Amino acid sequence: MTPADEHEALRRDEADPGHRDLFHVPPGGGAYAACAYLAGNSLGLQPKSTADELVAELAAWQHLGVEGHFEADRPWFSYHELLTAPAARLVGALPVEVVAMNSLTVNLHLLMVSFYRPTAIRHTILVEDTTFPSDSYAVRSQAAFHGFDPDTAVVRLGTEDLNSEVLSYLERDGDTVALVLLGGVNFLTGELLDIPAITSAGHAAGAIVAWDLAHAAGNVPLTLHDWEVDFAAWCSYKYLNAGPGSVGGAFVHERHLGDSSLPRFEGWWSHDPATRFEMAPVARPPASADAWQVSNPPILAMSPLRTSLELFDKVGIDALRQRSERLTGYLEALLDTVGPAAVLVTPRDPRRRGAQLSLRVSGDAAAKVADRLRHEHGVVVDARPPDIVRLAPVPLYSTYHDCWRAAVALGQVLGVDR
Among 103, 120, 154, 313, whose Cα sits 20 to 30 Å from the Cα of 206? Predict the structure, then answer.
C-alpha cells in the first residue's frame, strides 16, 4: 500500500475517532508505540477507569470488613442491582428480565434446567454446526442427563445460509424440537443471525428459543423483550470489556417470571432479598430474573463490569453499531486487496455481521499467521484452527489505522505483492 493509503486511514480517524483514549492499549513494538488490537472479540481491552473503581471496592473491604455489605458506598448486598438497568438497556430488555451472575456456560445450564423439558417425541436441541465448543458440551450433557443420546438429540445445522436452514428445519421437523439454542453472532464466522425471525419460527413450532449472546452483547443492537426470546445468556469479557473470566449475564422473558411450575435450582441469592436474612428453610424467589441466581455475587468481579456498562450507556450501542459498520466496511475493502491467499467467510452484507471479519487461509496456517502478525508487526488478531483468522475492529477503541496496519501486515505475512 502507498503512503497515500495510510494518510487516508489517518484522515478517517480524525473524522471518526471513536473512544480509544478511554482504554489501555498494549504496546506494539517496532515503529508503533501501541499494537493494532483486533482481538476484542476474544478479550476486550481494559478501560482506564477500571482500576480506580476496583481499588475503591478493595478500600471498602479494607476499612469496613463485613459491614461493607450494607455500609459501603455501593453496598455489596445489592451490588448486582447496579448492573441490572444498564445491562437491560444494552440487550433491549426490561430490568426485571435481566440479572448479572456467574459465567456464560453456568448460566446456560441453570436456564436449561428450567426450559429444556424434553419428552419422548419432542427432545431435539437445535444448534449450529459451528457452535462454540462449550455450548456443544453443555447441550450434549443436558440431553444425556435427561436420558437421551446426545448424538441424535442434538441436531447441528450449518450451510452458507444458516438462517434459511434453521427456518426450513423448524418448518419441517419443528414438532421434534424442544430447544433452539444458537449464537446470536457466530463466534467463528462473525455472522449475525436473524434472531427475531428464528425466534418467531421456533415458537410457531412449539419450541423454546434461546440465544447465546457472547459475541452479540455489546456488539450489535438487541431487543430481546420485543423479539419474545425465551431466555439468553452472555459473557462480558469480549465486547463488554469487563476483564478475563468476568461475570456474565442472563435474560428470562417477562412471561416466564413468577411461573412456579418451572423447575429451577435455588440458593441464598434466589430468595427474595426483603426476607433473605430471616434464614427461612424454604426459598421464596422474586418474580424476576434474580430468581435464577444461586450464590451471592462476586463484588470484585462485578466492579469492572459496572464500569464498562457505564461506558456503553454514555456512548450508546446504536452509535457504536454505526461506527462498527464503517470500520468493518473499510477493513473489508483493504482485505480484498490481499487476494485469494485470504478468503472472507463473513457475510459481506453489513446487516448480517457484527464487528468481526473472518478469513480462511490456506492449509493449517491460521495459528502461524496470527503469531507472525503479532510478533513481527504488532497486530493482534486470533486464530481458530485449522484455517480461520479473525479480525475484530471494535468500535469503542479500534481505529482505521489499526485496520490499515492489519491489512498491510497480512499481505506481507501471506507473501502477497502489495
Answer: 103
